[in-house]
Amino acid sequence: MSEPLLEVRDLRTDFALKDRELRVVDGVSLTVEQGQALAIVGESGSGKSVTMRSVMRVLPKTGRIVGGTAKLNGRDVLALSERQMRQVRGREIGMVFQNAMEALNPTLTLERQLTEHLRWHGICDQAEAKRRAIETLGDVGIPEPEKRIRTYPFQLSGGMRQRAMIAMAMVARPKLLIADEPTTAVDVTVQRQILDLLATLKERGTGVIMITHDLGVARYFCDEAIVMYGGRVVEQASVRSLLAEPAHPYSAGLLRSTVEVGGRHRALTPIPGAPPDLAYRPSGCVFHPRCDQAEESCRKNEQPLLPLPTPVPAGGRDVAARPDTTTTTSRVVACWKAVERG
Ligand SMILES: Nc1ncnc2c1ncn2[C@@H]1O[C@H](COP(=O)(O)OP(=O)(O)OP(=O)(O)O)[C@@H](O)[C@H]1O
Predict the structure, then answer these.
(1) Tens digit of pLDDT for each residue in 109-139?
(2) How many beta carbons lie within 10 A of that of residue 17, not counting itself?
(3) What is the pLDDT of residue 314?
(4) Average predicted confidence (pLDDT) for the chain
(5) Is the pLDDT confidence value at 251 over 80?
(6) Regarding predicted confidence, which is higher, 29 or 327?
(7) What's the ipTM?
(8) Where is this region: Disordered (predicted)?
């Protein structure tokens, strides 16, 4: 079998506080294949952004990767020099942020930003760079790209700015696109258009990692999902099975607190309590203080990720054995009760 596009194993990242180190990413593993979309879901503060910023190696000064590997087509990007890493960023991995202004320079036209990006990576000459920049702006749905290329980011509407940022991330045609809550700052119509655009990129073979707190967004076009809580992965499953039957009580809580995209809206039931203060990580299962199913053992014992037994559907194993072409990973969950329930 060929190597995965991205394979992260046992990633650990700390932040230096005044008097101690704070572990905010604690042994995260994930895999993305070419043309596959992985959702990283979880409440605010669960470690989604820091996980992907660690892979991109764009952490704040106090952040430090203390363990793990992140192999992009077999090459561990965590072991690269900063100079080599600058070649990876933008060229092999594109990143789309929550706020377009974080990625766009307000003082430069789109033409300058897009062409300089291509020229800096030595991808093509100026004439070709301009041609590609116009083509990419068209690809992301910016009308009249030949004209719009001369505008500054502040002259664009919020939705168009978001598209321009995706164009920036895509112009060098990276194999992997990381989108960190790309639809949070835009209205529902633009949200839909951005998700359609990301779905098209996926169909063309780009691997996509979508960071979101909204399972409805994940459902829209992601194949696989990991659910993060307190810096750890608590469940990994295909989006389809996660939405149909979340195994971890936290995943089930997230699902109950999610508004559906494009479908029926259901009453929101927030998960009681608050995410953990990582400086005072609870003993045992990190979710136990908020879990209505927690028992003494959950308070005492850490919960490793364990495979969930595959249920035998009516009709027997032959049906279960039918290959599911949209998923590549097995289903795992960090809850012994969920594993026991099967
Ligand atoms: N510069 C920093 N110094 C110390 N702690 C930090 C820093 N940046 C993030 N953290 C902590 O790391 C943890 C994970 O943050 P992260 O931004 O990855 O969460 P998230 O799941 O992406 O949430 P959100 O959806 O709000 O972005 C949080 O507890 C956060 O407080």
Answers:
(1) 999 999 998 998 888 999 999 999 999 999 8
(2) 11
(3) 47
(4) 87
(5) yes
(6) 29
(7) 0.96
(8) 303-326
Q: How far is the CA of 61 from the centre of ligand 1 (A)?
A: 13
H-state helical runs in the chain = 48-56, 82-88, 100-103, 110-120, 126-139, 145-148, 158-170, 188-203, 215-221, 239-244, 249-256, 296-300, 317-320, 336-341
Give the position, in ligand 1's atom list, of the atom nearest the Cα of 46.
21
Q: For 67-85, give one letter per residue: b (16+ CB within 10 A) or e.
A: ebebbbeeeebbebeeeeb
Give the position of tokens 């700015």: 161
Per-residue pLDDT reduced to its tens digit, 169-188: 889 989 999 999 887 767 77
Q: Which atom of ligand 1 is nearest to the CA of 213?
A: 25
> Which residues sit opposite 21 in a β-bridge?
16
- Model pTM score: 0.89
pLDDT at 256: 86
Please report which confidence band the pLDDT of residue 260 belongs to, taking 50, 70 and 90 as the band edges.
Answer: low
Query: How remote is the CA of residue 51 from the centroid of ligand 1, in Å?
Result: 9
Whats the size of the chain, residue-wise?
342
Mutational test site, ligand 1, from 49, 180, 227, 286, max ligand atoms within 8 Å of CB: 49
Output the ligand 1 site: residues, CB below 6 A: 15, 22, 24, 42, 44-50, 60, 62, 213, 278
Edge-to-edge strands, sheet with 75-76: 21-32, 6-16, 63-72, 75-76
Determine the distance from the C-alpha atom of residue 233 to the mean position of all C-alpha atoms in its chain, rounded to a whole number. Answer: 13
C-alpha distances in Å from residue 44, one per residue of 12, 201, 266: 18, 27, 21
Q: Which residues pair with 87 in a beta bridge?
A: none
